Fold each of these.
Amino acid sequence: MISLSMARFNYKYKIIELKDLTFKVKRRLYELGFLPCHIIKVLRTSLLKRSYLVEIGGYTLTIRRDIAENIYVSDKL
Amino acid sequence: MIEVSLVGNANTGKTTLYNTLTSSHEHVGNWHGVTVEEKSCVYKYKKDEINIVDLPGIYSLCPLSFEEKVATDFIFLHRNRIVVNICDASNLQRNLYLTLSLFELGCPVILVVNQIDKKKICNIDYDGLEKQLNVPIVYVNASEKDCKDKISEAIVNLNTKINEGFKPKYNIPYLKDILFVCNQKLNKYDKNIHDKSQNNENLIDFYKIKLLEDDDDIKEKLAIKSDFDCIEIVAQKRYEYIEQLMCKYSTKRERVYGKSKLDKILLNRFLALPIFLLILFGCFYLTFFSIGVWLSDGLDFLLEKFISLPLLNLLIDKFGEGSAIVGLVDTALISGVGSIITFLPQVALLFFFLSSLEDSGYLSRVAFVFEDILGKVGLSGKSIYTLLMGFGCSTTAVLTARNMEDKNSKIKIGLLTPYMSCSAKFPVYAVIGGAFFGAGNIFVIVGLYLLGVVVAVLLSYIFEKTILISKEQSFILEFPPYRMMSIKRTCSVLWLNVKLFIQRVGSLILAMNIIIWVLSNFSITFNYVTTDGESMLKTFGKIFAPIFAPLGFGNWGVVSALIAGIVAKEVVLSSIAMFNHVDATSSIQASILLSTSAVYFTSKSAVLSFLVFCLLYLPCISTFSVLLKEIGWKWTLFGVIIEFVVAYVLSFIIYTIGRCVEYFGLWQTLTPILIFAIFILSIFYITNKIKKKRTCPFRDKCSKKCKIKR
């Protein structure tokens, strides 16, 4: 199990759990499909790696590094 | 009247549909959070009147930002209204999550599937889905006119059914499982929930689910403080059902929504920022220094030849040359309004470029790129929308601050927006700067635009470290697909902005010009005064003029123009034209070079100081009123004071440096300034180094007795 911030670009990972996030952020992530067993892919990061562009559930969205650090995924599929 | 709410995820085309249904021209764009407040309009379909309300985009009924709260509160308060739930066909799976939440609330729903993109991501069996969910489904392209009939027909049909006693019963198989968990966890709150929901079955279930989701508003309403932490179960059940639906009624997705090969270049870690700056510079160059200038010159020529001179000659023939009416038309209308109206092509072009950026889907990518920089000064990457919109109009830009997730961020971005050089400030830069700097004015204008951004960023950093500490923003932002602006939309954007500009000049600015003309041509005893006479404005301006003397422009004319400019920034220029008695045959630029004029500048440093003051001093009255509404009077007042102080101090510094350069030469002035700057920076560097050294490197495992800062 690794944190999403450690994931390699363009590889598929399976979400395991979300840790240490506020209720509001956790809820929003669940609403957007960041649920256990769902597949996620990191597409790229910004220059200073403060934000991450990810692909989940057939669409793309950005999240901040501190959120990515608290999303735990399985080893790459 | 049939009451309808337009609900859906962000960027699914709600406002486009609203515009099509009601023939309105509300602002639309291809990014997250264009609509930040509810808008309503009544339209007629056959015999029925339909009142439709457009709401900001939401992902669920649990809000995260201010604009989402506007939408969720409205839906909850008006839950008996018909809900037109608009979903993007390209991203149906995610969109259905909200649909299921609406079903749980028991709203009468019509599902509208909007096929914005011509390239289909997957094929959907709408009939099968309609039967499975037991909800009317209409699939349309929201920008095409035929959708009006389809949707209105569905609304009227549903309304007829409701009037006959129909109550929606949706097929939500997972609801039993969730309610089972609810009953286990929420046993002791049953009485409370039943009392508050007045035994309405749908509402009881909805409250229970919301409690499982730890919705703060519902908890507050039911006076429950415990956390249930079951959000995952609820979301999992909804997504399982959606996945079943998609497997059964949709083909496999062919591409990913919002993913594009173009991003490899536009979001390249090292190229992204230079590309954005290049695009922005290109837009400004085309607007202010090439096409825009040619169009402005053409308009100026046409206005002078076909309107100004013939009108003036006609009035002189009728009333005589020295009459008050000729003076009023010549100064207030021809030179005052005329000096602003010639900038119409440039303003229209600027808004066209900003709209193109909005429609392209590039703005969300810019937010991603800027998260690095803005995050360091306590702003979210999303703030870039507000700041960029500030280049067009601060008033509308301040409203987009509702995209922020916490109150302090909203206040901060609201306070910083007026520092951007809005389109109303540009005519002042172009005319006044042009008179003194000629071709070099391009650097002055670029410098002023940059200065606004730099001041905003520095102030944000100071606010973040002192009084407006913001919570960490999640920066969860969906990427829309790239889209080209259609010819129809291009024409519509240009026409709307031309219309708005003419309306503004013809109403507010003309009225202000007439008031200023009266104040500058009549004395306190209300006698008509000559050029050298003591007018009301001159008397008033002389009181305040000494305050601005240290900034290099302490004459009554400049001060009065600045005060008048609080109404609208363009009025600064039209006031100068009126005070200097510029007529149809002379120019403002020539008049401000003469020391005999009411408004004149003695040196280039005084002009620079004046332009900087114009950029920063106070927001216009409409921005002020929006700020009052959005952030409250205390913060607005604070913002206004800070703006004035910042403008005064910076203008003073620029004027002093400018004077030193004029007296002692460039290098003799810059050398001590550079030495001083290096000295200050070294102090900061050393202090930071010492602080870092004093931080215990083993702070996680270190004992509490350790005296080094943890």
Amino acid sequence: MDTQTEIKPINRDTVHKICSGQVVLSLAVAVKELIENSLDAGATNIDIRFKNYGIDLIEVADNGCGVTEDNFAALTLKYHTSKLSDYSDLLGITSFGFRGEALSSLCALSNLSITTRHQSAGYGKFSFNILELYFAIANVNYNCH
Amino acid sequence: MIYNVLFYFLATKIECDHKGNIIKKTPCSRQIGTTVSLTNLFVSLPVRLKEFHKNVKREFNKMTQLLYAYCLISLGVKITCSNQTSANSKNLVVATQGSMSYKDNIACVFGLKQLQSILEIKPEYVSNIKENIFKGLSQDVALTEEQSIADVEINLSEDSNDAENIESQDICSSQKSQGYQNVVKPIQFTGFISSCAHGSGRSTTDRQFYFINSRPCEPTKIIKLINDVYRQYNPNQYPFVFLNVNIETASVDVNVTPDKRKIFLTKESIILDVLKNSILKLFESIPRTLKIDASLHKDIVDTVKPVTSQPRIFNSFLQQFSNKDVSEKNSIHNSRSIEKPDLKRKSTSILDFISSKHVRKVDDEYLPDDCSVKHSEYSVEDANNIKGECVSKYGEPSINNEKNIKNSSNKTISLEGSNEEPITRNNHEVLYLESTDKLPDTQIRGINDIEVQKKHTIKCKTNSSLLKPSLTSTDVRKCKVLTDRDDLGKYNKRSVTLKTSLDHVKHLANIYQNNKYKTLPERVKFKSTINPVHNKKCEEELSKEISMESFKHMDVIGQFNLGFIITRLDDDLFIIDQHATDEIYNFEILQKTTELTNQKLVVPQPLELTGVNEQILMDNLEIFKKNGFMFDIDESAPPTKRIKLLTIPMSKNWIFGKEDIEELLFMLRESSSEYCRPSRVRAMFASRACRKSVMIGTALSKADMKKLVIHMSEIDKPWNCPHGRPTIRHLVNLALIHVKDDVE
């Protein structure tokens, strides 16, 4: 009997699963990837929450730049990143992440949800109101004096 | 109110499936930024999931270690980490204040105490190649490029400015060779390291954080270098290290491993040089380190890496030395003496001297009286010499002698009448002995005397010198004693009175016959010899071959030298150190049963432990209580301030403190065991156990001995006393002895 089997490509979902297991080895790596994302987003405040040592929940919240709506689809896709587009960019890389595999790997290994708000969303109106409020208060103070 | 209306619905919540596709998008409220929530980590990998759940606390500790690295390196970022378990409320693991200095971050994560014991490493660029070479730096340059060594040597005579130029050229050339022709940027780094003063370091490497361009990583060579240098100054501890190296991104390859912890560097050797220089400089200027330490350290460096400090001179010296050494070895063949090279060299000169003198003496040999006088002189000299020479003399001089003396004294030998052959052979041995002055001068009076002595010295020779050419001085003395005239008579006759009967002989013959048929034991259980070098092997063998039960079956044969018990298990004889074995027994009992009494502190001491350590402490309160530590726990306080020390253990002259708690915490983190004791408590138990135990020199009854042996079966690790002395060793296998007899 000829038992030779055909050599054929692995289907994409399987590749995804295999590779993801290689990227996120432990809890430490999972958390590391999320912190690095936050730091790359320019956050100044990062809050990490665990429930039951990470068995129930791992949550990393930051005040970084956020993600715009048109990037949502690519956010959790494998090898999608904002950090580089060409290999030569790697030589000058300063961000922690660059491969575009962290979030997609975490997706494959766990139930992931992302809540994000980009800095452009409602930014102008917001600041205007703050200023108005500030002047209003200043005026009151001034008038008092 | 206006606000709420404005930023409502401006954020989006995305949920994804395992393939990375968005399955649900819901608008929600959030300030600018991102929150990523993971639930059911490793849900799609069942094996890893199980492993994760099983070791979740250890995994969590590992994660915090990594988290610390990010907390330390992130300037201006406030990182808060908390954990909530089902049992207790929210628990802060670590929190930084978003400060702009690394020092503040260190204080936030590890407490102010850590900050007080660390020093900043200032980059110390190698400005002077002279110094550089003498300190054993830039090894690669010295080793790989012959040319550069030549340059260096020339530079030694010139002023340092030139040297500086050359050095920078060196860097350039090495970069060119590696394919980088960019403008040379000096390596910059920020670093903090524990002071090398005694006790400022840590017992483990748990607080070492390395960064390259602010990226946490594990540069193994740098880690090794720093620890090595630190241990030269503080040999028993490891430093706290925070080191961030800034180099151009083009010379770094971060894309090596999936977790990006491994990094390749093109300029690694330069970084290592600068680092080493900086740390050495830093520690040199510490007033608290004794000057002696520093000089000692330099010695070490010189002897360990002399090649780099004085390349050429040393190499040639080394060659000469090794040549000499080889020739020496040839002449002192068989001698097992391990002597310092200096001694050896001295010995050759003495050897030359002696051999030259000896030739003269041989010429004089015809006049026995003169000769004997000279011999006596000789022996005085000899007394000062080391055994190496005694052996080396063996070579040439004795041969010379043989020729000369054969002419002179052959006649006398033949007079003696017994087989001529062995005596002529022995003749030369006798001469050897004479030439090495092992015979006292009194012997040589007349020809007849010589004969008798010769016969005797032959015996001496074959017994000791020939078999073991490495005669020690005591052996020499023995020879002298034996050749005294009084003894000669006995040895010549060789008469031994032996009381025996025919039955007795028969009986012995029977035993002999029986033994003859005894085959070799199927398996030799114990092969290791009693030698401190083989301690570990011995222990392995013993623990493999002897179970706790077998101690009970051991027969006590008797006491040896008032210090050792000889026991037998089947055919194997063992020697047991009576003191060591009693000590380990007492020690284990103390360790298991003692609960240290504690003393209350008037003012509770804040401990400043890291969040993880606080957690470990809270999980193991029982063990701490057993060791006499009690704590005041305030769970609502921020990390590092939650635990205060209430009581410390007191035990006669021993006082314990925070260091012992830290040690215990470390032990608990590595492996939690019921009988965790800090090393100082251990030391206290050990000294108490020692005083309680049977001393060497005490005569023991058989019952006492039996009791000691049985005690060995009741303890966990009977192989060593708490101070490390071995308790039991295998002496000999009786079956093997019988077999040996038969073979002979």
